[in-house]
Amino acid sequence: MLFVFPSLVHLAYNMTYISFFPLCFLTALFGYPIILLIFFCPLFEILKIVGFLATKGELKINWMIEILYLSTSLFLIAITISYYIFHKLYEYDAKKHERVKQFFKEILIYSGPFLWIAVPVLYTYLTFDEMGDIPFTCPHDYDYSSTVVLSACDIRLANLICMWAFPTLCSLYLISISLLTLISKGYNKGDEVMIEDYYNEDIIVGGTTFSSEGEIKMI
């Protein structure tokens, strides 16, 4: 045990600095913004619709794609809240808790590509020229017909940024977590080999060899 203990300490040290702190960092960098975007995306979409309606027909709304994207955004909120409720409800029931996790995991796996990629691509394509001659970045030195149109343009730009930031951050978060998992497994494997080597070493004390198999040999 005396020879195994340093390796166990080394293993705990690696797991602490390779898994826990990077995980916290990645969660702060990607996870929390993702949670905020889950709520900001539908908020800016609603504000965009209100802003376009305020122009009294000067800016046209493609209701089909707007409703589709708004429904998609609200669906993510519904999934998030539902998971939290069921997580708390079955927190002390291991089997049901695992079923809930698996259920929501399958929903995200099968709906993720559609929600995160297909809808934003379709939305961007169908609303690409909805501002007419107004530049995409909504420069304030442009000659707008009214301040209402300028505000609607700014809200539209913020809406697009949020819409694309969400799948981008989700992808980066998943990639980072996957790489972190591989790194952690590599360190774990290395420490397991180190522990095994400690067990397999022969110990020599005062001319007597104590083998790893329990044999005692006199030199």
Automatic annotation (TrEMBL):
Highest taxon above the source species: Eukaryota
Transmembrane region(s): 20-47, 67-86, 107-126, 164-184
This protein's UniProt keywords: Membrane, Transmembrane, Transmembrane helix
Protein's name in the database: Uncharacterized protein
Organism this protein belongs to: Diversispora epigaea
